[in-house]
Each structure stands twice: as C-alpha cells, then as structure tokens.
Amino acid sequence: MTAKKVYIETVGCQMNVLDSELVIGALRKQGYDLTDTAADADVLLFNTCSVREHAEEKTYSALGRVVPHKKHNPGVVVGVIGCMAQKDQHAILDRAPYVDMVVGTGQLARIPELVEEVKRTRTPQFAVSLGRADGGRHEVEASFESYDPTRDPSMRPTPFQAFVRIQIGCDKFCTYCVVPSTRGPEQSRQPDHILAEVRQLVEQGCKEVTLLGQTVNSYVYEHGDGRRTRLSDLMAAMHDTPGLDRIKFVTNYPKDMTDDLLDAVRELPKVVKYLHVPAQSGCDEVLKRMKRNYTVASYREMLARCREKVPGVSVTSDFIVGFCGETEESFQKTMDLVRESVFKNSYIFKYSERTGTKAADRYPDDIDEEVKKRRNQDLLAVQNANSLADHQAQIGKTTSVIVERASRHGKRETGPVKQLTGHTMADHIVVFDGPDRLIGEIVPVRIDDASPFTLYGEVLTGETVGVSSEAKPRAARPRRIGLNTV
Ligand code: SAH
Ligand code: SF4
Ligand code: F3S
C-alpha cells in the first residue's frame, strides 16, 4: 500500500512556519508522507494569515486551485488552519464550500484526529478557540493551547536552525491588528519546557534557535512562588547549553525593551546582536490612534538606548502607511523617523482594514489606495538608501556566519566551490564562495562588498568557528516543507 500523502501551503509569520512544521511532524507520525504536489495529496492543508486582506486573498486563490483535484477525488481532505480559520470560522465555507476542516491556531493538536473524523463522517469538522469576549480570561486562555509537540528535524528547511515558541497570543490590542483575536491571550510558556525543547533540538543537531513571540520581550513567566523568569533570564539559562551556538528572538514591542534585556544581548556571546522593534509610525497622533502606547520621542530614546547598550547592534522595524487619518504631514514625520534611524531594514505595509478590529469600528479607512501606494514607495526609497548605508558600514569587518545553503542567486551551480549564503551575528545576509561541506557550520567571513540587502565576503580560513567547542555529528539534509510566505 502506498503511504498517504499530505500537502501544505503556509502564509504569514514565523509562528505559522513553526506551526506548519509541527502539524506535518504530527501527521508523519500517523503514517503520512509530505508531498510538494497538491495533485498527489490525500490531505491538503492551508496554514493561513489574516493580518492583511492580501494574505487572505492569497489563501482563497490557492484554495481555488485545488478544486479540480477535489472534484476528481472527493475523498481528499481540504483543511484551512491557523489565523484565518480562527477569525472566519464557518464563513470560510461561504467562499470555499468544499473545505472539510477548519482548525484555529489554538486547536492544532486536534488535526490528526479531525482528518480521521472527516474521512469517517464526510462532514466538515470545526475546531476553534473562544473569542476574546466569549468568556473569562482563564477560560479563553485555556481554549488557546500552545502547540509544542516533539520536534522532527527533517521537517525544517535546515536541521541546524529552529524556531522555538516561548509565548503565544498578544495582549497589546493595537487597533489595526487581528492577532490578539486570532492568537488569543498572551501566555508565556514555562521556562522548563522551553529549555527542554532547546536541549532536545540541540541533541538533534540544531545550532541556532529563534525564540518566537508576538511581543517576545514581554515574555515573563510567574512561577507562583514569587519568582519570575524574564526573556533575559531565559536566554541566560539556555546560553550554556553545549552545542547551541546562536540565540535570536523576534518580535519586540518598543515599550518592553528593558535594560536587563539589552544587557543580556550585549553580555551573552551567543545572542545575535539584532533587534526587530517595529515603530509602525513616526507621528504621535497616528501612534495614539493605533494604540501603540508610546510616543515617537520615547521610540527614539529606546533606539538610542539599544545602540548605546549593544554596540554594533542592527535594528529593523515595521511601518504601516495610510493608516486612518494619516495626513501628508503625519507621513512626513514617518519619513523623518526612517531617514534618521538608519534601520538595517524596514518592512513597510499599506494599511489593510480588518473587520472586528477597533480601528475598523472607530475610524474610516480614508486614505486612497493610490496614496497608500505612493507613501509605501517613498518610504521604501528612504529605507533602501539607509539599508545600503547600513550594509556598507559592514565592509572590512570580519564576522562569524552560520552557513545556511547554496545561494539561490549563485552563479556557480556545479563544481566543488559554490556560492553559499548565511547570516552574520548582526543578522545580515552574506554571500561568499565555499564548498558545500560548510553548510551547517559557523565560519569567519570578511565582508568585502555590499548591496542594500546583501553583503559579499570571503571565508577567512578552512577552520570553522563557533561559540561552543562541542563537536556534533551533522544531521542529514532535509527536504524543505512547502513554504509560501507573504
Ligand atoms: N507582533 C508583531 C507583528 C505583528 S504583524 C508586532 O507587534 O510587531 C506584523 C506587522 O504587520 C506589524 O508589525 C504591522 O506593521 C503589520 N500589520 C498588522 N496589522 C496590519 C494591518 N491591518 N494592515 C497593514 N499592516 C498590518
Ligand atoms: Fe498586533 Fe500590536 Fe500585538 Fe503586534 S503588538 S501582534 S501589532 S496587536
Ligand atoms: Fe502571524 Fe498572520 Fe497570524 S502575521 S499571527 S499568521 S495573522
């Protein structure tokens, strides 16, 4: 008998990439093989994002493409999982009536059981968590389960890098954002569980972990006996794990960028000197309507503190342009903030109104699409000039690089020397020549040249460097899971 096959498409943030890895790992335990070809699959999963309308439309187009396969094979199971599943629930069937299964972010552990239930009953199955106003805090929290089953290195793009969830949900309630409802209340995972997961990942050959939370620097675990573990404590506790070389964390909330955290980033050699701290806007009135709870002056102060406490740190940000009531003057203030801040990169988004959010209830989406587009381009132009400046400032430096893969844009596809790519200790992407066997190693690279998004360099010696001295066996190269990020 041939193995049952599962196909998955993923949009959205790193949380979704991690969830897809875990869901596929769980289905493999039930005897499924992963396939890259939708037409071969018995189970087709769409791990979704609702943060902007574009992400939802992408999923509906993808769903539309599987209709012929489903028509010819009515027995296949089509599942919509993740943020859109939690947000739209039964309404998904209005646009895609052939969907068999809708599973929210807090119910992913039930997927294997629900797939069987669809096959047995041939009726659509739903598993979603409570809405934020559908019960007491504790009840709603309990309905969003952190999904952290045993890890399977073969499910990751590289076995030596892994995401680790340290926090689920979000309690910030920025007025434009769906995440507090799609991911539920903010809950920090127990440090013991996180540390055990990191140890297990390292035993499987993982060298770099990226700690995930929507506001990861708000992480705090109250032990119940007066002790509390902050992100800085957690990183200190995992720092000496033998074999672990690098620790990253995303995404930071500006107001929670405390000195203990910045001290930890500076003092702990394995912690990558990189902070993603979205500002969203450079105008106080806009920030107020967004309910970001900080002013532009306090963001600037925070940025200066990051750079003073962590010399050489690279900082990236997110911005929303065309938010409700954003005047030309407000937008120019954002331009000023981006111009002066010299972020390594900024992710710039056009405001997308989301039903159910406070912004959608309170403020009209009153900026023309054309104006949003123009502001997006203008801000991007300023950022790109700064990205180039930030990258050029790296020229001449020697930095350790985790070698990830042969460069997709590599010119040398054959022969022993390839173009390889990896990330520096300040999270810059660097391309350099080297043999395949360096993939998965940490090597010193001297930076010789820069473009706005890429550094170019040369490996200095045949020696590999790493913070840890433990030699570990190399894990086998995995197959990639079908990722498709927005
Ligand atoms: N938790 C993270 C990221 C959340 S979503 C944080 O707070 O920074 C990633 C980014 O999408 C946000 O930083 C924001 O810039 C953008 N975003 C969120 N909601 C949006 C919306 N309705 N329209 C456009 N961009 C949005
Ligand atoms: Fe959304 Fe704001 Fe929470 Fe980030 S902090 S996930 S933007 S509500
Ligand atoms: Fe992430 Fe999108 Fe959900 S950004 S948390 S997948 S709404």
UniProtKB/TrEMBL annotation:
Q: Taking every annotated instance into account, which residue ranges of this chain make up the domain MTTase N-terminal?
A: 4-120
- List each copy of the Radical SAM core domain by range: 156-389
Q: What are the protein's UniProt keywords?
A: 4Fe-4S, Cytoplasm, Iron, Iron-sulfur, Metal-binding, S-adenosyl-L-methionine, Transferase, tRNA processing
Q: Which domain of life is it from?
A: Bacteria
Q: How many cofactors are bound and how?
A: Binds 2 [4Fe-4S] clusters. One cluster is coordinated with 3 cysteines and an exchangeable S-adenosyl-L-methionine.
Q: Which CDD domains match?
A: Radical_SAM
User: What does it catalyze?
Assistant: N(6)-dimethylallyladenosine(37) in tRNA + (sulfur carrier)-SH + AH2 + 2 S-adenosyl-L-methionine = 2-methylsulfanyl-N(6)-dimethylallyladenosine(37) in tRNA + (sulfur carrier)-H + 5'-deoxyadenosine + L-methionine + A + S-adenosyl-L-homocysteine + 2 H(+)
Q: Where is this region: Disordered?
A: 467-486
Q: Which GO terms describe its cellular component?
A: cytosol
* GO MF term (any one): tRNA-2-methylthio-N(6)-dimethylallyladenosine(37) synthase activity
Q: What class of enzyme is it?
A: transferase
Q: Where in the cell is it found?
A: Cytoplasm
One of its Pfam families is UPF0004
Q: Which SUPFAM superfamilies match?
A: Radical SAM enzymes
Residue stretches making up the TRAM domain: 392-461
Please tell me where [4Fe-4S] cluster 2 binds in this chain: C170, C174, C177
Give the EC number(s) under which this enzyme is classified: 2.8.4.3
Q: Which cofactor does it need?
A: [4Fe-4S] cluster
Entry binding sites for [4Fe-4S] cluster 1: C13, C49, C83
HAMAP family given for it?
Answer: tRNA_metthiotr_MiaB
Q: Which family does it belong to?
A: Belongs to the methylthiotransferase family. MiaB subfamily.
Assembly description: Monomer.
- What does the UniProt function comment say about this protein? Catalyzes the methylthiolation of N6-(dimethylallyl)adenosine (i(6)A), leading to the formation of 2-methylthio-N6-(dimethylallyl)adenosine (ms(2)i(6)A) at position 37 in tRNAs that read codons beginning with uridine.
Protein name, per record: tRNA-2-methylthio-N(6)-dimethylallyladenosine synthase
Q: Which organism is it from?
A: Limnoglobus roseus
